[in-house]
Write a structure and sequence with these properties.
This protein has 3 domains: about 15-130, 2-Layer Sandwich (Beta-Lactamase); about 155-285, 2-Layer Sandwich (Beta-Lactamase); about 295-530, Histidine kinase-like ATPase, C-terminal domain (Heat Shock Protein 90), CATH 3.30.565.10. It is about 45% helix and about 20% strand. The protein has 15 helices and 18 strands. The chain has helices at about 15-25, 45-50, 65-75, 130-155, 165-175, 180-185, 190-200, 205-210, 230-245, 290-315, 320-345, 350-380, 390-405, 425-445, 500-510, and strands spanning about 30-35, 40-45, 80-90, 95-105, 115-125, 155-160, 200-205, 220-225, 250-255, 260-270, 280-285, 385-390, 410-415, 425, 455-460, 465-470, 515-520, 525-530. The strands form 4 sheets. The chain has a 6-stranded antiparallel β-sheet with strand order 8-7-6-11-10-9. The protein is elongated and about 120 Å long.
Length: about 550
Amino acid sequence: MDAVHSIEFAEPATEASNIWKLALEKSFESVVIYDARGHVAFWNEAASRLYGFSSADAVNGFSLPTALENVTPVFEALREGRWEGSITRLRKDGAAIRVKVRAETFANRPGSPPNMVVEYGVLADEPLTDHATADRIRKLEASEDRYKLLLDNLPVALWQVDASMMKDIFYDLKDGGVSDFTRYLKENPDLVEMACDAVTVTSTNSLATELFGAPGSERLLGPVRYIFEEDREAAANVMVARFEGKGNHTQRLKIRTFDERLLDVFFMVSYPHRSSVVDATILMMVDITDRVRLEQQLRQIEAEFAHASRVSTLGEMVSSIAHEVRQPLTVILTDGETSLRVMDKDPANWPKARQMVSRIVESAERANEIIDMIKEMASKQAPVTVALDVNDVVRQALRLIYNESKSRSIELQCRLSPDLPEIPGDAVQLEQVVVNLLMNAFQAIDGGSVTLRRVIIETSFCDGSIILTVEDSGPGVPPAILDKIFNSFFSTKNSGMGMGLAICRSIVDAHGGSIRAESGNGGGGIFQVAFPVGAGQEHT
């Protein structure tokens, strides 16, 4: 008779249940499934080796020699959901062995048979002789007590989980040619759901109990599903990191506690660093809810300052804006009067009138565009992330700033590199960066005794990043203030708010980029912004 026995799984079988069944059969641990009477309904090759049975033994429906004695308290304990401990068992040849066991019911397992108990066992020590049994048991228990004491006194909420079943699944998938596990999980979401039930918490510390508002540590034992209830994608991330052989994984995670609090936590996973009999993975959490709330408040304050800075900049440019709007209005007025005159003639010059009306429409559209630009800059709204061409952002900012440069007699040179890749970002915020840098350059030129009044704005692509450079012909940036120039409220102008460059840095940081300043070799200031392409910028 074969040593591995069949067991009926729920139909129809799913990808998750088929993989799980295969994992039971191939598990490196001893797997024994008992029916409600405590009799063996299934066991795998590892169980045969552990208890010294061969394929010739009739084991189907057979109770192990000490099964009824030792399984009964396990069944009683399982009323709480899960049991773990060490049990002395007898092999077929009568030798006593110490088996480290964890057992659970099949509740909520995808495709599993109901009303049964599965026992996972590993050899806790070498075979025991009668005179050594008591001493070895005492040492094992003392070691377990020290380990539990260490876990309970760590200053972070901690979970120890058993993911041994997933190890066999990962091996089978790799053998089957799966390399892009992220894509595989998207195509087979049932595997994530199965893992949330198959991976189980075996122990926790008091801080974990406190964090989740649980009445006792027993409430945290069992499947890890409750940890990922608010963020199933995080469960997939943990699986991907393990599949790819990483030693650790960290991310932010939202959790729902048992007393219905929604918390932000910093989530850390430490995987076994070498293959072991027990695949003990450690999960740790640190409550960062207050920190996240403060970060949100800080972002709100930064948004308020950014809005104030835009309004202040528009105030400085009011004369240029008035001139910009007056131009199309003047054309509208002139062309309207001309149209009336040509239509009053007898006969009316309709082609000429049609030409004048077309110019009126074009000028009205131009006036509307200017008003829309000013409205966007002055508006107070939440950021909207879209795919952006940095060159388009620069052109839009230049349209707003052009008359300001003319009124100050500053030459603007624009050198935009063609075919730049797009980046995710908010158009209004990035336009504000360009406008702030240009206004800063204008003010630097006005504040210095320079003959050449020129600003160069340039875009390029270098080393995987889009580079935006603004270079002015002013007196340059003194070395003593290079490390302060982007600080909030720092200004070299008596009337300055000290927020323009600080806001630039805040916006650039939020778009995953970097900004720096330096003095040019021939004088003048150089401000350079870099936006990495394809680096997964997170814009908030």
